[in-house]
Design brief:
The structure is a homodimer of 111-residue chains. Chain A has 111 residues and is mostly helical. Chain A has a single domain (12-94), classed as Winged helix-like DNA-binding domain superfamily/Winged helix DNA-binding domain (Arc Repressor Mutant, subunit A). Chain A is built from five helices and two strands, in the order ααααββα. The first copy, chain A, has helices at 11-23, 26-38, 45-49, 54-66, 85-99; strands at residues 70-75, 78-83. Chain A has a two-stranded antiparallel sheet with strand order 1-2. The mean pLDDT of chain A is 86. Chains A and B meet through α1, α2, β1, β2 and α5 of A and α1, α2, β1, β2 and α5 of B. Chain A binds a DNA duplex (30 and 30 nucleotides) through residues 1-5, 25, 27, 43-44, 47, 52-56, 58-63, 74, 76-79.
DNA sequence: CTATTTCATCGTAAAAGTACGATGATAAGG
DNA sequence: CCTTATCATCGTACTTTTACGATGAAATAG
């Protein structure tokens, strides 16, 4: 990146980009799908489903948690994750509000 | 990445991840915002707005075009881009359908 | 207390992303 | 034809991401 220019952009742009970044890997999409389907906190069962090593899955889970898309608690010897629907809703709205009402303008003129 | 495992996932997961990847940088979000706001094809005006070099903006534009989020045509000596609303709608639906109806299940049990 | 299980973290290696200046290609203007 | 303008591409440097095995920490089971 030479020198990170990320902070030269607005907070809204950064937030949306950070959210998208968390979704920007099929493994993390798959993890979210598993968590959403179960809706009860899962942990190493995810490792069994994905074609990835345990440490790699753990990294993806941490990335998702850092992005705020999932919550995690410690349950004895195992970790328990589930989707943070509130954050999900927030970003969905942010995404829609950013582009939806702009589409109302007169449609395509070129391209 | 050692060895790319991207192809070990379903096409839906890959598509959604690719879409998110295109949004996963504030500069590209900013570009889309500019294009959406004008709705007429813009080109190097984007360079004036962004705090990035021309070559860097060009790279981002190419990334967005490769992801299918924008269309581009050559207009004399300059390039003209605009948002591909159709693709945008497609991915928005894909995103919603992936997570929305799953939320209907009984809410949170832990975390 | 000693396994065992479960997960996080460390270390490492390879791949991809980000950014810039410089150069190249293409079309318009003189 | 020659210049200028506009944008893409190349080459390069640095950062970040991805992935794995190995190790470490914490709680349960015996």
């Amino acid at each position: 990146m030479a020198i990170a220019k990320t902070e030269s952009f607005s907070k809204k742009e950064q937030d949306l980009a950070a959210f998208a970044k968390a979704l920007a890997h099929p493994a993390r999409v798959a993890i979210l799908k598993v968590l959403a389907g179960k809706n009860e906190c899962v942990c190493g069962q995810i490792v069994d489903v994905l074609p990835l090593a345990q440490s790699t899955v753990s990294q993806h889970l941490i990335a998702l948690k850092a992005a705020g898309l999932i919550n995690g608690t410690v349950d004895g010897p195992r970790s328990c994750y589930c989707i943070n629907w509130k954050a999900f809703e927030k970003f969905k709205n942010e995404f829609n509000s950013l582009f939806d009402h702009l589409q109302v303008k007169d449609q395509q003129r070129c391209c």
